Amino acid sequence: MKNLNLTKSHVLKVSKKMVKFLFFLFFLLFSTSVSAQQNESLKEQVNNVLTQKSSSAFYVGNENYINGKRVALDTAYFSPDNDTLYLYFDKALAEMPFRESSLPVVQDSIRAVLPDSLQNIPLKIWANQLALEELVPNYYRNEISVDKNRLTPEARHRKNVVKKLRPYSISEGLDGANIALWNSHGWYYGPARDRWEWQRARLFTNLEDISPSSFVIPFIIPMLENAGANVFNARERDWQIHEVVVDNDQSTGKSKFKKPRKRNDEDKGFVYSEFIQGTTNPFQEGTAIQFDSRNKPNVATYIPDFPEAGEYSVYVSYAKGDGPVTYRVTHSGGVSDFLVDQRMGYGTWIYLDKFYFNAGKDKKAAKVELIAPEGEGKTFSADAVRFGGGMGNIARNGRAGGLARYFEGARYNLQYSGAPDTLVWNLHNGEDDYKDDYMSRGEWVNWLMGAPFGPTKNRMAPGLEIPIDLAFAFHTDAGILPDNKIVGTLGIYSTDRDTSVFPDGQSKYASRDLTDLIQTQIVSDINAVYKSNWTRRGMWNSQYSEAYRPQVPTMLLELLSHQNLEDAKYVLNPKFRFDVSRAIYKGMLRFITSQNGQDYIVQPLPVDHVNARFTNGNAVKLAWKPVMDELEPTAVPEKYMVYKRIGDNGFDNGTLVTEPEITLTDLEPGKVYGFRVTAVNAGGESFPSETVAVGRAENSKGQVLIVNGFDRTDGPAIFETDSLAGVWRFLDHGVAYGYDVSTTGDQYDFERESAWLDDDSPGLGASYADLETTIFRGNTFDFSLVHGKSLLANGYSFVTSSDEAVENDLVVLKDYQLVDLLYGEEKQTLLPGKDSVPYFEIYTEKMLNALSEYAENGGNIFMSGAYVGTEIPKEKLQKERIGNLLGFKWRTDHAVKNGQFYSVNSNSNFTGTFNTDYVLEQYPVEAPDGIEAFDENGKTIFRYAENGISAGVYYESKHKSLVLGFPFESVKGQSERDALMREILRMLNE
């Protein structure tokens, strides 16, 4: 330490306060006679005290702040000119989050150890060469002036590359924002072992190379896009293994391209190739057509040929044009329009949306039209349109990776997307794909922007002229802690590499603001929802490639540790993934709007209590309730979108309504309709509600109410002893939100003392790889469609209601001849953390009351689910109540493994199989119940073929009931389900 200039009187006064450590700081430490050894010893004492205080008193708002770095005082300086004491600390103090309210706490903590003579002098505290108040993010400043150098320069303000045409406006969301992100690592080629491999180990049935995808793809990207943002991902985002390309050069299958009129030239463009060798850039090997529009719109048409029905992402490519064009997508749900500005984003794939397409080629039902507007003197471009993610096709040492492109690292997707090799993804001359992969991500951001933000090797490279607002890297590799502790959330940014400003003069401390906002939101939301005292770690200002390479505000997030079992309990839970993703979206929203001086509103949560009922003729009334967000007061629904689906097709573009209900008319008999609802406000659109299915039969035999009680999403079972710990998927594999994209396989090493050797032998948590590239169904919230198809096939009309609507008397059960209780894999669940409130209970008091009243009036009940017996409460009175109502009792769980069952009814020879496999079409049932008749009024009507255990019970008293110990919707084959429903309806209704 140096530069401590104290007057003689000051020194004398300090020397009388020997009990405080700053006596050493101001007297002995800086005495000319003190030895170097004494100096270091006393400096150590000072820093010990400061480190202890920094983790408690300095940071207001989170007692569980743990950085792991010691705060060190570098320099103390007393200025006699203004009687101010200056204290200069190192980076560790600058890595803490500060607010205006915490600044006095820091000062008071230091004053508490100063002598009386120095109590009233001003203190000035610095950390990493910034005054402490400058570490308060702009967003949190009230009294402190905003640092204008951190704001987004006007030239880089928001511009839409793609604008989805909606019937509502997003005035206080992210409309026009452009966000670049990537989900950790991926499948890559390692020359040392001459194999394609992951960059991380398979642990606790999970893997960092694919785990962040279960946040980014189903949650973060849709939330940002629902707020109006354009999101660019360095990795492929569509797990669809099929790829259909329609192009002027070469198309796949029987796909066809129809050229526009008035073509005037060609430019470089994409060409399809089954395998891409070396450094070949597919966007330099083909052509793109240039054309003009004059007195009327000019159209290029892309007609795809799909190998099978399914959901496909739609990407477009073009060379540079003179302005916006319309891409009109015709899909199974209708027609959707997008405005794409060809002055940006040329020479790569630009994502539009994901749609359901039927198999084959049908120019009336599946096509994309590029419509250039009327006008003189403008030139536009038509290149390729791509449907689906496809398989990886970049060959390394003569062979491709063999997995869907979705699983591969960014380096390969960027090559396929036209990024220049020498600037972006081939920085090591093809010799080190591992380094190329993580280095390419930041350089790709710079290429999207172009001069003067271009890649490191050429800042003036023209790029794609997309004004990126921020970049975000998502990882889950934050270390390991013993003793059942949570590793927690680490944020990383960079301000010191090369210069302290971005090429347009914006301060790189904007990256610190971004990191603070997102990390704060994550920790705050987790603690509020899970009561977990989640660990907030530091905000490291470090030279990580993914943090310093992008020439825009950037955060590298280490959310938690996939290597640590306590963290794994959270990462495997779909609700946690949703909540964390919403926190990340909110942090980005607050950052971008504050950067641009705008107000913000958070998009609403999904609605609930959805229910449908028939009115007059072929009309149905749909109603629901909005859901308020306890964590976000601005997330209030203002309007709603109602989406319709006919049969197995995709959903239409929706109808905007102002009230939480709508009457839909002209429903055709014999068709199954699906409806789902979203809430909207000025901040954007929520995720959709569950889907309620409706169908009216011609010459209907009666009306059935399907009650959807399958709301559960959940992580797999976890067990722990002193010596063993891990994930027991065979006991309960959990239920994914939508689809499971991140399970590697069952864990096989449960020994706590099992040591890590390498990624092929990682010790505790080591897991199989048999499922790691299998996308399989979880809870898609649309299984009323499956029940409804079979009801309609047997001549019954039906509507659907959520279980919440029934429990709150929004549905009149007595209006229906039969109630079909759809409980899937519903069962009571506790969240990870300390929240002890049970979720997803089947036998609530309100539901039992509603069903009891219905049964008393002679109503009949059909119930199915994997845990309908397991979930019966242990209390005797409740057992008897449920037994008398539904006519069955629990015998065993995990009753069968192969899913085969058969009828023991003398009037039937039915046999069937329910799904226990990991497939896309149906969720696997791992724990079906064995159930038996409650009393003499009931009897077994189905048994499991594997062991003869009772699988289904029929009961008849004042009313009739039929209960299956497995979910009806899990039965394989439409004809088998129809036949089973025929058996059920015959016994209950005929």
Helix content range: 10-25%
State which percent range the strand residues make up.
25-35%
CATH architecture of the domain at 697-712 and 781-989: 3-Layer(aba) Sandwich
- Provide the residue-averaged pLDDT: 91
Radius of gyration computed on alpha carbons? 31 Å
| Overall CATH class of the domain at 697-712 and 781-989 | Alpha Beta
Number of strands: 50
CATH topology of the domain at 697-712 and 781-989, by name, is Rossmann fold
Keywords: Lyase, Signal
GO molecular function: lyase activity
Protein name: Fibronectin type III domain-containing protein
Signal peptide: 1-36
In short:
The protein is an alpha+beta fold. The protein contains 19 helices and 50 strands. The strands form 13 sheets. It has a nine-stranded mixed β-sheet with strand order 41-36-42-43-50-49-48-45-46, with helices on both faces. The protein has a six-stranded antiparallel β-sheet with strand order 5-19-18-21-16-13, with no helix packed on it.
